[in-house]
Design brief:
The chain is built from 8 helices and 47 strands. The protein is mainly beta. It has 5 domains: 85 residues, Immunoglobulins (Immunoglobulin-like, Sandwich); 121 residues, Immunoglobulin-like (Sandwich), CATH 2.60.40.10; 135 residues, Sandwich (Immunoglobulin-like); 129 residues, no CATH class; 124 residues, Immunoglobulin-like, CATH 2.60.40. The strands form 12 sheets. Strands 30-31-38-37-33-34 form a 6-stranded mixed β-sheet. A hairpin with a 5-residue loop joins strand 33 and strand 34. The radius of gyration is 48 Å and the shape is elongated. It comes from Alistipes finegoldii (strain DSM 17242 / JCM 16770 / CCUG 46020 / CIP 107999 / KCTC 15236 / AHN 2437). This is BACON domain-containing protein. Keywords: Signal.
Length: 677
């Protein structure tokens, strides 16, 4: 009994111990700390950036980002990309990284979840912000003449033109002189892929219409010549995001009216023809078979008008548009191209010629009227009264002059004679010498130099003559070796030779008339005397042998800056030389030879409106040929040139020269070029 009792007591004690132990474990679980989650944040970061979350958990933890946003966000674990990161209690950092790929329209969002003690909480909502689009369009810079400025550093930059520094608010097409139509180079740059989605119908589609992000693209916006609006227009260029058609940039673009575009080129103010219907080419100083040629640029409807000057026995000449009075003028005009798709503004050639003239000198006027003016003219006589009406004189293209039939003797090359100091002209029909010698035609031949009898002074006699008789100033016959005059035949005609040293009358007898030597050559044929030439040798007669009459001036003198032009004269040449002995000697030598000289000085490397207007010439020679590489020129037309100068190097010539020459390489003028900047 006692033993059973002891066993019962021990069992109760054991149960009590177990119960005590059980109560102790339960107390420990209740006392475990709650997870200390950080305050939630909502930052915005850019593409390629990171955001760090500082945590100090009081127990083991796990951070995670959704796999759905794995392409845009991840957790950085050292150099590894992970989407779940674990750690123990204590301070820690969770670094969230965003992808570098930039987007313009979609905000990417990532939730960072922290789990501790069986609980989870979003501790950060991170937004990757969108990129702002950038788009700029700049237009080409224009020079003082309205033309596009080329980029001097195009090789380095890859850009053909220079562009404005500020974005353009609009694009205005322009038609610079010498260009072929309305256009404007532009430079487009954007940080997104773009496409030129809309353009006016009067604009040609550029060679490239798609641009890459971050790249500069030059576009030549060229008007469609077949669709120019007569009265101009303003529309819009639309550049669209290639990946989002809902985003676009609109730039206004305009094209000027072309209704009034009108110009005539290629014709001189005077078009001269000889009796053989050859026209005078002022560039080479020769008579050329055929017709003079020009071009007219206009819209359809421009029209030419011709008026002949008709002389009458009594009263002043009058202008006529009658066919019989214009029959000697040969005007041809390239027809207008009216085929579909042809240009709205066209450049067409025209020619002006004449028939051979067997009588008096002839004169006519050629006018060209723009379409808008021509359509108001129903009768040519609306343009004239006694002369061309003032309001229409602006449309005068050229004055046509044809020489009178010279008679029995004519000069083969009058311009060439001038260059060697000779002249040939017809005497008036009532000249005293014509009656005295009993001839029909009389002429005057003047030599000023020993070489004035060069081949340029060849004359043509229109018949076979049987002899030539020579007479001195007193009209006394000269024969054989006594004559200081002689005539020799060549393959091209005849040349008169003068040897003033043999003139027995000498110079004293002619002092009152300012002529050194005078004599007469009288031509005869089977019917007797038919022509005389009054032969004069006078070294001081003002013709030929230099550049008399050659002029150089600024084309726009009132607008010039950074340049000066001074004519060199006997009064100022020492001052212009400024102590430079080489210049002084050159000035003096050429003044002695009668060669016109000018000093062109640039005080700026890029002067404004310094275009030179010069008399007709055949060639220009740059001097010195070595050492003046800094000097250059560009012909802008037959009579205008643009001179460019750089700063000479130490070993180079301090000044240079432009020598203007005629077709025979005779010096016409010298322009000295001095950079002073």
């Amino acid at each position: 009994m006692k033993r059973h009792y002891l066993h019962l007591v021990m069992s109760l004690l054991a149960g009590a111990c177990l119960a005590a132990a059980s109560c102790s474990d339960s107390d420990k679980e209740i006392k475990a700390p709650s997870p200390n989650f950080p305050e939630a944040v909502s930052p915005t970061i850019g593409a390629g950036e990171t955001f760090t979350i500082e945590i100090d958990p009081n127990q083991d933890w796990e951070a995670s980002v959704p796999t759905a946003t794995a392409a845009w966000f991840w957790i950085e674990d050292g150099t590894q990309k992970v989407w779940t990161l674990r750690g123990g209690a204590g301070p820690a950092r969770i670094v969230i990284a965003a992808a570098e790929l930039e987007e313009f329209d979609d905000n990417r969002v990532c939730e960072v979840t922290l789990t501790m003690g069986g609980q989870s909480k979003v501790i950060a909502t991170i937004t990757r912000g969108t990129l702002d689009r950038g788009f700029t369009l700049r237009t080409c810079q224009l020079d003082d003449y309205g033309d596009f400025i080329y980029n001097p550093n195009s090789t380095e930059t890859g850009l053909t033109y220079l562009y404005g520094t500020e974005p353009a608010e609009n694009v205005a097409l322009t038609w610079p002189e010498g260009r072929t139509g309305f256009s404007m180079p532009v430079l487009v740059e954007a940080n997104f892929e773009w496409v030129l989605g809309k353009l006016p119908e009067w604009l040609e589609v550029p060679a490239k219409t798609i641009g890459e992000p971050g790249a500069q693209l030059e576009l030549r916006l060229q008007g469609d010549a077949s669709r120019y609006p007569l009265d101009g227009a303003e529309e819009t260029l639309v550049f669209t995001d290639k990946n989002n058609s809902g985003v676009s940039y609109e730039i206004p673009i305009s094209i000027p009216a072309c209704r009034d575009i009108f110009s005539v080129s290629g014709m001189s103010a005077e078009t001269k023809f000889n009796t053989k219907a050859e026209y005078f080419n002022s560039m080479n100083g020769d008579w050329v078979p055929g017709s003079a040629m020009g071009s007219v640029q206009s819209i359809d409807g421009a029209k030419f008008f011709l008026f002949a000057e008709v002389t009458q026995q009594w009263g002043a000449p009058y202008l006529s548009a009658e066919a019989e009075d214009l029959a000697w003028i040969l005007l041809t005009e390239e027809p207008w191209d009216s085929t579909p798709g042809s240009d709205v503004v066209q450049s067409r050639q025209f020619t002006v010629g004449v028939t051979e003239n067997g009588g008096k000198a002839r004169k006519a006027y050629l006018l060209a009227l723009p379409a808008a003016v021509a359509e108001t003219i129903s009768d040519p006589y609306q343009l004239i009264d006694a002369e061309i009406r003032d309001e229409y004189k602006q449309y005068l293209v050229t004055t046509i002059n044809q020489e009178a039939n010279p008679g029995s003797i004519s000069a083969n090359n009058p311009a060439g004679m001038t260059e060697i100091g000779a002249a040939f002209e017809k005497l008036p029909a009532d000249d005293w010498y014509i009656g005295e010698f009993g001839v029909r035609d009389g002429y005057k031949l003047i030599y000023t130099k020993e070489w004035s009898n060069d081949p340029e002074s060849t004359l043509t006699v229109d018949r076979e003559y049987t002899g030539v008789a020579f007479f001195d100033y007193d009209l006394q016959p000269m024969s054989g070796e006594e004559s200081w005059l002689s005539v020799r035949k060549t393959a091209e005609g005849v040349i008169v030779d003068m040897d003033p040293a043999k003139d027995k009358c000498g110079g004293s007898s002619m002092a009152n008339e300012g002529i050194a030597h005078i004599g007469f050559a009288v031509f005869t044929d089977a019917d007797g005397r038919f022509a005389l030439i009054q032969c004069i040798y006078d070294e001081n007669y003002p013709i030929g042998g230099g550049g008399e009459g050659f002029e150089v001036k600024f084309a726009m003198p009132d607008l010039v800056s950074g340049a000066t032009l001074v004519e060199i004269t006997k009064e100022n040449y020492e001052a212009v030389a400024g102590g430079n002995t080489d210049l002084l000697a050159s000035f003096a030598e050429n003044l002695g030879m009668g060669v016109p000289q000018y000093m062109l000085t640039y005080t700026s490397a890029e002067p404004s409106n310094a275009v030179l207007e010069v008399s007709p010439y055949q060639q220009i020679m740059l001097m010195p040929m070595s050492g003046a590489e800094w000097l250059d020129y560009e012909p802008l037309s037959d009579t205008q040139i643009q001179v460019s100068m750089a700063k000479p190097e130490a070993e180079q010539a301090p000044y240079g020269m432009l020598q203007f020459l005629d077709g025979s390489w005779n010096m016409k003028c010298i322009v000295y070029c001095m950079p002073a900047f």
